[in-house]
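Figure 2 data, in text form.
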Amino acid sequence: KVTFRWTGSDTALQVLTAGLRYYEVQRRIAGGEWASYGATTATSLSTSWARGATYEFRVRAVDRVGNWGGWKTVTVGL
């Protein structure tokens, strides 16, 4: 079982921020196609992966006006 945790924030502009809407979370076996866990407001995900493979997990945030943040990707070898 693998647990990922992340945080995010909306960068303050001149007066107000839009606020975060949700996160997009994806995973893949290294070199394969990305599979989506979908959109979530959660800041963690626990999942079970099989041993003997290298997995990549990534997350990015979108704010309430539709601006996407960059992907944060981690690689896990089991």
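Caption note: The chain has no helices and six strands.
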